[in-house]
Amino acid sequence: MVCVLVAEFLLLKQTPFFWDGISKSSRASWIYANGLTEFIVPTDRNSGHPPLWIALLAVFWTIFQKALWSSRLLLLIVNIGVVWQLVLFCKTHFLKTVSVFAVLLVCLEPTFIAQTTNLNNDMLLLFFTLLSLNALIKSKSVLFYLALTGLLFTNLRGIYIVISIVLIHIIYSRLKLIENKKPIYLAYVAALLSFAVFCYFQYEKLGWFLITQKENYNVQRQSVGVKQILINSIVYVKSFLEYGRFIIALFLLPLLVKYIKDKTNRNIKIDRIAIAFFVFAFVFFIGMVPFSNPIGDRYFMICYLLAILLLINLITHYKLAKKPIIYSAIVLMFISGHFWIYPPTISQSWDSSLAYLNSYTVESQMESYLDSSGVKPTEIGTRIRFNERDFSEFKNLEEADRYADFNIETNQFILLSNIDNQTKDEELNEIMNNWKLVKSYSQLGVFMSLYKKE
């Protein structure tokens, strides 16, 4: 698996930051520009997320070079750490008759694979999540402290994960599924104190902590009404089923119901995985569904991995005769997940499958056409994030290279792509139905189309 990750690094070492990763690059650039003397980013750039990932990026740029390859070197190290912790977790929790190679099936999960290629902080968050579970089960208090601190300093979702770990710890202890050693509790205190110190310094510097005062981020963290909660609940469930993951639910649900009903045939490893899965899923649901922040598939990677591991164990536990067929079906569905493309009017978690990598090919083709046609970027309105290339690709943009802001009333040309989730359905329909299509490129469902107003 490490060899695959190294090969991935070599193939993608010049691949730009994508989507939310671009804003992380922007904040890391501020830390880098200030010579690593300040790690609390100003409010006008700050989304509220703690700075561990962006600080690590800035450190790597300082040691090596501010370049895509050095950013991806950091991601490679994090990816290797994640796989290492995942293998340890699987070795601890696989039933005796499960082959160690079954971990490869876990690693084929589509969003997990996609995130190994994406310059964002989700793999770092997953590393600390797996480290916290491994340290809790082995009662390693120092590693547990490092894991909890890492969760709190990587992403605001780390708070939900720490809450989940606390609940998992309580349930494990009450059911005697782990040894309950007192030093492990000191890790909670130390981690919370460390995070409290950071919050204090951020409040002193910015006048706020955790809840950013920057408007375009703040509006994503507001409570919503009943109707939106119902919509968010559907999106939440959809996240667990799309990109081929429905196959896991299809096989897992009947086996899990059978296991829960059969109280005389229990296994401590299955119990621990099932409890962790349900606790994480519950806390994520309570923490995200009532709020306006868009729900991304990558948020729930730990749930997907636990579900696969749980299914493997239940298949072995009940000695299902058709195991090879089930595993083959899972592999095929996981591979198919990278080709799931929705219609342009349906928002898609593009960074949750490898489909997003096709956007770079169609982008190159479209810009080659624009160079040859004489249409200037300043004449073209778009919501594709070309104007942020100083952070996504570390390119210095001249004014002549910048695209116009998207405005259906004033733009003579508009460049659309399904990689953009911000354009409203009525805008898409207006342009696609009433404007002239000048040129379009596509690859495996990802498209980029240039339209001209009639």
From TrEMBL:
Highest taxon of source: Bacteria
Entry annotated with the keyword Membrane: yes
Gene Ontology CC entries for this record: plasma membrane
An annotated GO BP: lipopolysaccharide biosynthetic process
Organism: Winogradskyella psychrotolerans RS-3
Lineage of the species this protein comes from: Bacteria, Pseudomonadati, Bacteroidota, Flavobacteriia, Flavobacteriales
Membrane topology value: Multi-pass membrane protein
Name the UniProt record assigns to this protein: Glycosyltransferase RgtA/B/C/D-like domain-containing protein
Pfam families assigned to the protein according to its UniProt record, in alphabetical order: PMT_2 (PF13231)
Primary localization: membrane
InterPro entries: LipidA_mod_glycosyltrf_83, RgtA/B/C-like
